[in-house]
TrEMBL record:
Mode of membrane association: Lipid-anchor; GPI-anchor
Residue ranges with Polar residues bias: 455-470
Chemical reaction(s) catalysed: Hydrolysis of (1->3)-beta-D-glucosidic linkages in (1->3)-beta-D-glucans
Coiled-coil zones: none
Gene Ontology BP terms: carbohydrate metabolic process; defense response
EC number: 3.2.1.39
InterPro entries tied to this protein: GH, Glyco_hydro_17, Glyco_hydro_17_plant, X8
Pfam families attached to this UniProt entry: Glyco_hydro_17, X8
Protein name (database record): glucan endo-1,3-beta-D-glucosidase
SUPFAM superfamilies, alphabetized: (Trans)glycosidases
Family under the similarity heading: Belongs to the glycosyl hydrolase 17 family.
Length: 497
């Protein structure tokens, strides 16, 4: 059953200085039925996505993005890195063909040179900095170096001893690369690109990292991780990883290089070995991530400082090799149908309209029948839902089971409350879908019905006693922390308050 996403992305909140925090989206293309560039851009516009990262410099995509104002990060794929890193002329030709030919019509703002090179393609590490310098020199020659930043995305697994963050350092074997790389980023006013995957940290911790800590869920003060050296409190894995990178850079005497997270997300489906790769967790992680980035929270080390982040990813990629989770990081399927509805609220954000403008609230598959019954009783009582269609002999009596009856009541409440955030939760036993649950003569509120007329149950009234208000690199597989990182956080009482 297709689950609908109301995707809010991207108008930004101001942060210190003249930097703005933003959320972007990665666009992978390993789909058996990849949408055309025009279709991709239409989806981006409809969802008001203003920042994207491409894993190459596809000409058709760059042309489709022209005159949209969307800020684009293009990439030098790993298989082109050796040639560019060994030849200034090759780099210049690449920039002429893929950058100069498209600006200013296409708003290219960054070039990602390779992807997780140190861990995914270590034989290319010796020429990585040369590749960045050659690309940058070509931009200078075209007077584009102020507009377009050059960097390279890293797996955060290059950070060792990541907790406490104040003791983190980069794998020392990479110092011959990291030191000149950081000098380059500093001298060109660029930023460190970092891929942060709390999902893998959680999976690899063997239960030592709490799921709530990975998903940004609120923690009681006595469960917050505390850096004993700085007394900084950490309420989520994402912030701890980012601060570990800040401290690792400072260990090498670089203290003024910002961080942009080029990949982060959570899979919505996994195989039997990945029980936490589910829609609800993907929804929770990405919703909380977006709010965290856009509300200027920053990190404990740098509060209020932007950590702009690109969600991995726009589409589910069915051609990705590996487990089911590898194929299910997307916000949309190939048809542009949202995988889930992000839980997003806030005055500083803009909600984009969905493509169908129809969503329904239904009982979650496999939900505890006792909890469903309790939620049904509330909806038909204090929730003031008109449940008369569920009575014997009425249109929605059949099928006569608690899941079916709950679905009707949940949806009636959700529609009457104008689909407000949190009104389709019911203590976690409800979820949102784009599939119309109407059947036979049982027409659900919000449905167009058989004659195409929108049905609204105006007999419903808002509840003043809403007890359902519990609101709810292309190479991955290496987590941001090693298992040992967080064992010290979560097993040792000294790091907790």
């Amino acid at each position: 059953m297709a689950i609908f996403l109301l995707l809010l992305l991207l108008l930004v909140s101001a942060v210190s200085g003249d930097e703005d925090a933003y959320i972007g989206v990665n666009i992978g293309t390993d789909l058996s039925d990849m949408p055309t560039p025009t279709e991709v851009v239409a989806l981006l516009k409809a969802q008001r996505i203003r920042h994207v990262r491409l894993y190459d410099a596809d000409q058709a995509m760059l042309l489709a993005l022209a005159k949209t104002g969307i800020q684009v990060t293009v990439s030098v794929p790993n298989d082109q890195l050796l040639g560019i890193g060994q030849s200034n002329a090759t780099a210049a030709n690449w920039v002429a063909r893929n950058i100069v030919a498209h600006v200013p019509a296409t708003n290219i703002t960054a070039i990602a040179v390779g992807s997780e090179v140190l861990t995914a393609l270590p034989n290319a590490a010796p020429i990585l900095v040369s590749a960045l310098k050659f690309i940058h020199s070509a931009l200078v020659a075209s007077n584009l170096d102020d507009q377009i930043k050059v960097s390279t995305p890293h797996s955060s697994s290059i950070i060792l001893d990541s907790f406490p963050p104040s003791q983190a350092f980069f794998n020392r074997s990479w110092d011959p690369v990291m030191v000149p790389l950081l000098k380059f980023l500093q001298s060109t006013g660029s930023y460190l690109m970092l891929n942060v995957y709390p999902y893998y940290d959680y999976m690899q911790s063997n239960g030592k990292i709490p799921l709530d800590y990975a998903l940004f869920r609120p923690l009681p003060p006595n469960k917050e991780a505390v850096d004993a050296n700085t007394l900084l409190h950490y309420t989520n894995v994402f912030d701890a990883v980012v601060d570990a990178a800040y401290f690792a850079m400072s260990y090498l005497n670089f203290t003024n290089i910002p961080i942009v997270v080029t990949e982060s997300g959570w899979p919505s489906k996994g195989d039997s070995s990945e029980p936490d790769a589910i829609v609800d967790n993907a929804n929770t992680y990405n919703s909380n991530l977006i709010k965290h980035v856009l509300n200027n929270t920053g990190t404990p080390k740098h509060p209020g400082i932007a950590v702009s982040t690109y969600i991995y990813e726009l589409y589910n990629e069915d051609l990705r090799p590996g487990s089911d989770s590898e194929k299910n990081w997307g916000l949309f399927d190939a048809n542009g149908i949202p995988v889930y509805t992000l839980h997003l609220t806030g005055a500083d954000t803009v909600f984009a309209n969905d493509t169908t403008n129809k969503t329904f609230c239904i009982a979650k598959q496999g939900a505890d029948p006792k909890m469903l019954q309790a939620a049904l009783d509330w909806a038909c009582g204090p929730g003031k839902v008109d449940c008369s269609p569920l009575l014997l002999g009425h249109p929605c009596y059949e099928p006569d089971n608690v899941a079916s009856h709950s679905t009707y009541a949940f949806n009636a409440y959700y529609q009457r409350m104008a689909k407000s955030p949190g009104t389709c939760d019911f203590k976690g036993v409800a979820t949102i879908t784009t599939s119309d649950p109407s059947h036979g003569s049982c027409i659900f509120p919000g449905s167009s019905g058989k004659n195409g007329t929108l049905i609204n149950d105006t007999s419903l009234a808002p509840s003043s006693n809403d007890t359902s208000s519990v609101h709810p690199p292309r190479s991955y597989g290496t987590g941001s922390f090693t298992t040992s990182v967080m064992i010290g956080v979560l097993l040792t009482g000294a790091v907790f308050l």
